[in-house]
Amino acid sequence: RAIAGVIQSLYIRIKPPGLPAMRRHLPLLILCTSTLRVSSFALVCRGKALGGVRGLAASASPASDALKVLVFLGSTRVDGPPRPARVGVRVAAFVERSLVARGHSVTIVDPVDLDLPLLRKPHFAYAQGKAPEVLETLAGLVASADCYVMVTPEYNHAASPALMNTLNHFGSSLFSFRPSAIVSYSMGQFGGVRAAANLRPFLSELGCLPVSAMVHVPHAHEALTPDG
Length: 228
Known about the structure:
- This protein has seven helices and ten strands.
- The chain is α/β, with parallel strands linked by helices.
- The strands form three sheets. It has a six-stranded mixed beta sheet with strand order 5-7-6-8-9-10, with helices on both faces.
- The chain is globular.
């Protein structure tokens, strides 16, 4: 589908716990396409909920503005130190809540709950309809989304291996001609900027070209509460 190219930067004011004098402004990218549809995000697979996928739908939104946003979470570290272990859950919750508040339907793909194995056979290598149920359902979610948000930590100057493993299970034909946004974070001062830069060419090759503006969240464990 054609991309309208309408991008709005929304600035959210956050008061981090323990830092009452500071206010952080995080740009939240709203990605708009020229052909928009409104549909509740039914997160089911043959009548059963898909583990690893959760989402919220806007209670009310203008038909011309609502987007289906698929958020890929890259965090799989469930224990520390350092603690808290899953800072990415906070970042993803903030993205989800902010988008839903603006009338969009959001689904989060969590690799911990999803529990995909290391890539051995991608979805497109199976005969049509013969892939494992989890891959078939995820493929449907990817194909039906209007845009994507990648939430990644930084490991060794690179994006999360768990995020890359999830995305590598699918071909570019499912992602093509839809925009993506990158949200990186860290518990340090740089907010995962090197991981974000590393992720840009990867997303371009998938066909979901990332917008030029990116969101970096330094000291994410202080800037965001557990519920985002």
